[in-house]
Amino acid sequence: MLILLCWLGAASRYANYLSQTEEKFSWLDLFARLLCSAFAGIITNYLCIEAGFSGPMTAAMVGLSGYAGVEAIQRLMNIVKSQNKL
What we know:
By secondary structure, this protein is mainly α.
């Protein structure tokens, strides 16, 4: 699962790089996105299991959050904050 999530993070970074041609490629940025994608996917997996989602739904949610990376983490934090009124 981690390899898939990292691949999705790399694909997201590559798509972003192609859309912004003036931005220089950075290995550090790519590595950070890979870590964020893997982390977002793992957290989403645990949340889906706890919520009782089916296997295919969990896989779809994990894949989408792995592709979204940092944006998925921010959205998950907003959900948690709104539920707990932090």
